[in-house]
Amino acid sequence: MNFQRIRALTLDLDDTLWPVWPAIERAERTLHDWLSQHAVATATRFDVPALRALRDDVARRYPQWAHDLSALRRESLRAALQEAGDDAALAEPAFEVFFTARHQVDLFPDVLEALRRLSSAYPLLALTNGNADLARVGLAHSFRGALSAREFGVGKPDPRIFVEACRRLGCEAADVLHIGDDWALDVEGARCRSADAVGSAQTGAGRGRGGIRGQSAGRRRPARLLNAQTSSAGCGWVSANFITSKRTVGALASAGGDPSPMTPVPCRVQLPRRRLTTSESPAKRT
């Protein structure tokens, strides 16, 4: 990969800058504790797994909201309250309790240093299918802005959201590097808008989700550097190296003029024989 030509970066958030499932599970417990005080019938009828199952059922019944995880969560709460005989108007304050707790994330250890180095060399744009708010997480100062599926109306891997990200950055697609953890959503999506991608693979979700995830929760893995060799049609094949995330950051920072670069040391690996499709990469339940 020629890092010298990279002019801007787009970054996924959940499972790229922090492990999302510990935060979601804490938020679900916090939500249930709140319901136990303010909507007793709902808390009695629905324990945490039952609320999660209801949320998944709502997602199946409302596929038109696949890009808006907040809407799905609100509707599942309204449905739970209504079914239990509690006041459905409590769905909004209940969602806010969940949403506040959802942003109490634990960053991966190298994220703050990585963002410091990268933001000093490149404009950064968050590109997410989730509903994380950079300001609530405390990282807004490192980014030029954020583009979410909820705001745009479609999510990754739809090429349109990548094109819009490039437009907001004022760059051609070939000059933007996307960093994310999901093979189908981040890598394939970026590849099909003629841009490069780095699969961070910071942690496994512990539930077998996503294209390049799937290890037990909290286990760190090397980052996979993906170089998209595009065809005239705008899509192409991907070659890959394993390198650590810090080395990826070091190579990018070095190309961007960082005074303390780290040299990437690649090791050739074999790609999976079959790429995962979007349907095989389930959305995060945020």
What's the gyration radius in Å?
19 Å
The counted number of beta strands is 8
What would the average pLDDT be, to the nearest integer? 75
The low-confidence parts are: 201-247, 257-283
Strand numbers in spatial order across the main sheet: 3-2-1-4-5-6-7-8
Number of helical elements? 11
Share in β-strands: 5-15%
Which series of helices and strands comes N to C?
A: EHHHHHHEHEHHEHEEEHE
Shape: elongated
SS class: alpha/beta
Task: Describe, in plain words, how this protein is organized in 3D.
This protein has 286 residues and is α/β, with parallel strands linked by helices. It is built from eleven helices and eight strands. An eight-stranded mixed beta sheet has the order 3-2-1-4-5-6-7-8. A hairpin with a 5-residue loop joins strand 6 and strand 7 (236-243). Helix 3 crosses helix 4 (69-84) and helix 6 packs parallel to helix 11 (245-255). It is elongated and about 60 Å long. Mean pLDDT is 75; it is low at 201-247 and 257-283.
In short:
With 286 residues, the chain is an alpha/beta fold. The protein has helices spanning 20-38, 40-45, 48-61, 69-84, 91-102, 111-121, 134-137, 149-152, 159-169, 183-191, 245-255, and strands at 8-11, 124-128, 145-148, 176-180, 196-199, 223-230, 236-243, 267-268. Helix content is 41%, strand content 14%.
